[in-house]
Protein: NAD-dependent protein deacylase
Organism: Gluconacetobacter takamatsuzukensis
Amino acid sequence: MTQHPPAERIVVLTGAGISKESGLETFRDADGLWSRHNIDDVCTPEGFLRDPMLVSRFYNGRRAELAGVEPNAAHRALAELEQAARDGSWDGELLIVTQNIDDLHERAGSRNVVHMHGELRRVRCMSCGATPECQGDCLPQTPCPACRHPTLRPDIVWFGEIPMHMARIDAALAACDRFVTIGTSGTVYPAAGFVAQVRDHADTLDINLEAPAIPTLFDRTLVGPATRMVPRWVA
Ligand code: BV8
């Protein structure tokens, strides 16, 4: 029997704003991470080469924070929508492409999640390429569990590095009929360019505390906190 494509194929792009009400900081809000950390020092490969201890401490601190927070109603609403597709009560397909490196989507129950900027809960060995889980601190001298070399780095995409899973993301964007952005300032590429990539074939919606910088980019906008607006959109 031919497999009919689902009635709706939705791609959701999330940014730091979806995790804000869980207690994690955003980047570009007034009190955000970039108000206290210099991007070049902590979010570039050059910064890591210059001072691996500073960068390791930056990510160790965010990993420690992550252990103390929980998914919120926005993460849970997306997980429930995916569950509806799995149990057949919704004839659709949902892929979450996240710029976030936290694991709150997964802890809310989402399985179709692509981390295009990497994940806090993993590190990467620059000698053997292993990407072991990392629950606690990882320091420049921490030996890789696979090859024992002290050459671990955060498994994170820094500025100037190529985002992960781009082929899968581009294929999903080309096939989607609805594209929703949640809690992102739309300032970092290539993620910020996704809406332009889909506008000719998908309905586009932005969910954010503020109206989008270029409102004409989206067919619709829902302005308000993610924990209120995402469950309303999913319902
Ligand atoms: C690449 C690491 C090539 C993880 C991050 C000149 C022009 C255009 C582009 C460039 C340029 N020069 C350089 C570039 C490329 C560069 C770039 O885009 N620079 C920008 C700054 C101009 N990009 C890159 O280098 C990327 N790589 O381009 O490689 C390539 C591309 C494709 C294919 C092959 C090769 C790599 C970018 C990744 C950098 N890594 N972080 C980490 O430390 O977390 S970026 C960082 O910004 C985070 O990943 C974050 O996710 C991302 C985006 O930020 P947001 O998530 O949007 O967060 P922000 O704070 O900005 O906004 C929060 C929003 O939430 C706000 O709108 C707020 O209103 C809202 N909000 C707050 N509270 C709530 C809420 N919304 C709802 N409810 C709430 N309660």
